[in-house]
Each structure stands twice: as C-alpha cells, then as structure tokens.
Please model this.
Amino acid sequence: MITLMMAAILNFAPHPVDTYTTKDGKEISYIMFGHGSIAVAYEGKVVYIDPVSSEADYSALPKADVVLVTHAHGDHYDAAAIKALAPKTLICTPEVAEKEPTAKVMRNGESLTIDGWLKVEAVAAHNTEARSNFHPKGRDNGYVLTIGGERIYIAGDSEPQPDMLAQKGMDVAFLAVNQPYTMTPEQAAEVVNTIEPEVFYPYHFGGSGQPTDLDKLQKLITTPKTKMIIHPELE
Model:
C-alpha cells in the first residue's frame, strides 16, 4: 500500500521532499525545487510558492490547487510555470495581478481561507530603508499558511522588520538569505532567534555573487527551539 508520504516522493522526484506529521495526525511534505521555488503537499493537495520554470519542469508535476506569488521579480513570478500548473486558485500581489487577471489579490495584512483546508495570511516583505530600491515597503508579500494545524511562514524577499519579527509560533519558516537583496546571515539569525520556529529552512541563498556563509548562520542561531535544515538545491 502506497502511503501519502511515498506518493509525495514519487510525484516530485527527483526534487528533495521532507515529510512531517501535522498536528491533526496527517502528513505534510515540503518540496524543494530551487532558489525561491518550493511547494507544500497535504492530503493530495499541493500549494506551489513562486514557481519558476528554470527550477523545475512544472508541466511534469502534479497540478496546483493553489499557487502563491510573493512579487513580480522574474526569479519569483513566471507566467509559463503558472500556466503549466493550471492552479485552481492563484494568489498574488496587486503588481502581479496586472498580468494575471484571474488571480486573487492579497495585500499585506489580509487573510483568506480556501475550501476549509488552507488559511493564507499575507505578511509584509520588504527591505530596510538602505536597500528599499530592491523590495519597497508595501509592495510584496510573504505568506503564512495554516494547514492541518501547522503554521508555515514563507518570508519572501525581505529583511528583518516588525511584521517579520512578529511571526512567532511557526512550525516551519523559510527565510531568504541572499545578500544584498534579502538578508545577511546575521539578519536571518536575528529573525530565527526572535520568532523561534521549530524548523528553519534557509532558502534563496547565494547566487548573487556573494556566497551565503551558512556555517556562520548556523553558529549565530542560539535558540535551542529551532532545527536548521539546509538543502543545497535552494541556492
């Protein structure tokens, strides 16, 4: 008999899949495609976050129940990947919605529930003043997903700011560590030590001509509540 976990691994091979038990006793899987492109699978449903064709052949993967797009940069928004996934629901920022007229728009601070199994909250994602030209305040989203009782924070491209530092009580957090566009190791460690997720995945790291010192990041995490997991594919 094929379990949901085995099915998830078969569906998404060869991409890495990490599977956990949710608070409701079911299985949830996190699929790592690369850079900012990940997915969450639960009870036969799949949520894709920032699918980009350079990271996976989305035409060969399970269709999307939900696609979330954090912002309009080309390494996060790809119309071809979204078309291949044929999502039942596409959620994005107002800027992306200009190109995706059927999408549901979410702005910072808004939330919605989809068919009773998924709650989505849009969280501010932006740079600090010194680097606000990359990701200005009020434009982009991070997302908090609640699935099976689990709270999952996908931060998007952001530096530490009040909305990010308020995301406590997370079971899993994906934080971008890609200076100069997102966070330095010191900034990411500040966030982890403040919000203390049970599991922390650095993602969207390296790749900008400034390699991310993940060993340094690990040493800077002082909270014993958090386990850091590194997947090289997320560079």
Residues 28 and 42 are 5 Å apart (CA to CA).
